[in-house]
Design a protein that fits this description.
- The strands form 3 sheets. A 7-stranded parallel β-sheet has the order 8-10-7-6-13-14-15, sandwiched between helices. A 5-stranded parallel β-sheet has the order 2-1-3-4-5, with helices on both faces.
- The protein contains 13 helices and 15 strands.
- The protein folds into 2 domains: 5-143, Response regulator (Rossmann fold), CATH 3.40.50; 172-371, Methylesterase CheB, C-terminal domain (Rossmann fold, 3-Layer(aba) Sandwich).
- The protein is of the alpha/beta class.
- The protein starts with a strand and ends with a helix.
Length: 372
């Protein structure tokens, strides 16, 4: 297989040079063109073969959002990674871009004066996304330890050991998600009623500011109360909590009948903070078999070890299927390990959650809402 072919679109000459140098530094990716604005990029896409576009948001003539909308109209399957700032404005625009169909994003380094550090940062954060989003053209020899999270060949889904007896009651839903997550959550959470009988805890791989804005957007669209996790927050039914960027989030039983969140800045796990594994370990410890773990679209294997902990404690696991995932890394690893009780498209995840949460409790309203 040949190398992925990338078009870099940014109005900054320095940024274009840094991105190009980072992508081509290990000779595993070809930067086949650069453009200073969206209009030039669209013209180049008509003339050259491109597998992925790295797209800045704030540009003259034609900005990133307008360019993305036109790319989606003309080339709906072309992967596009937004190159955004860590400001509130940049975070808001990035969420807009993801809603418009951007595949993923990379936050710009805060300072791009140190060229060596900037290239290293971009290489660390952008190169894996290129390989994950272009697995059909990525050269396996060039990938090294990186693996395409979405595969071109079918992956065997191992069948978990059969359960004996009825399914255990679910007292908490814990969700792990990464690449493609904002859109997956935007489809899932608004389908749940305010009367949802258990708390929902979510780890979405995102930096600070992004997670707060994501929670605010989801809260505005949902009957559930959706908020960014904060240390000491008391959790209960009808609420969803999203881990804050750069902080792990776990749950503890502070006293009988009272559950609270704990957030902390610990070492990254699976190169992520927040990471799914700490949350999954904590719900398995606190709730035992009364856990429903959900692993949605995402790159890498974060959540695999935590899913093992949930399953070994008697809890249940469902994962998003490959076809509806932007990247089938996180759910794919869990399914391949034989830990998934169900593998379903995102359009059926709410229904699957409702059915399992409804087991053992008179909660017909949950199932009725999910079926709408």
């Amino acid at each position: 297989m040949r190398k992925p072919r990338v078009l870099v679109v940014d109005d900054s000459v320095v940024a274009r040079r840094l991105i190009s140098n980072a992508l081509e530094s290990d000779r595993s990716i070809d930067v086949v063109g650069v453009a200073a604005d969206g209009k030039i990029a669209l013209e180049k896409l008509l003339r050259i073969e491109v597998d992925l576009v790295v797209l800045d948001i704030e540009m003259p003539v034609m900005d990133g959002l307008a360019s993305l909308a036109e790319m989606r109209r003309r080339w709906p399957g072309l992967p596009v990674v937004m190159f955004s700032t860590l400001t509130e404005r940049g975070a808001s625009a990035t969420l807009d871009a993801l809603a418009l169909g951007a595949s993923d994003y990379v936050a710009k380094p805060r300072e791009m004066r140190d060229l060596t550090q900037s290239v290293a940062y971009i290489k660390e954060h952008l190169v894996p996304k290129v390989f994950a989003l272009c697995p059909s053209v990525a050269s396996p020899a060039a990938l090294g330890p990186l693996r395409p999270a979405r595969r071109t060949m079918p992956v065997p889904i191992a069948t978990p050991p059969p359960r004996s007896g009825p399914l255990p009651r679910v007292d908490v839903v814990a969700i792990g998600v990464s690449t493609g997550g904002p859109n997956a959550l935007a489809e899932l959470l608004p389908s749940m009623p305010s009367s949802f009988p258990v708390p929902i805890l979510i780890v979405q791989h995102m930096p600070p500011t992004f997670t707060r804005l994501l929670a605010e957007r989801l809260d505005a669209r949902s009957e559930l109360s959706v908020a960014e996790g904060r240390d000491g927050a008391i959790v209960g039914p009808g609420s969803a909590w999203i881990a804050r960027g750069d902080e792990h989030m776990i749950i503890e039983r502070s006293r009988p009948g009272v559950l609270c969140l704990r957030t902390y800045v610990g070492p990254p796990e699976n190169s992520c903070r927040p990471a799914v594994d700490p949350l999954f370990r904590s719900v398995a410890s606190v709730f035992g078999e009364n856990v429903l773990g959900v692993v949605l679209t995402g790159m890498g294997a974060d959540g695999l070890r935590g899913a093992e902990r949930i399953r070994s404690g008697g809890g249940q696991i469902i994962v998003q299927d490959e076809e509806s995932s932007v990247v089938w890394g996180m759910p794919g690893f869990v399914a391949a390990a034989g830990l998934a009780d169900a593998v379903v498209p995102i359009s059926h995840v709410c229904e699957e959650i409702a059915a399992r949460v409804g087991t053992g409790r008179p909660s017909a309203v949950v199932a009725e809402r999910a079926a709408r």
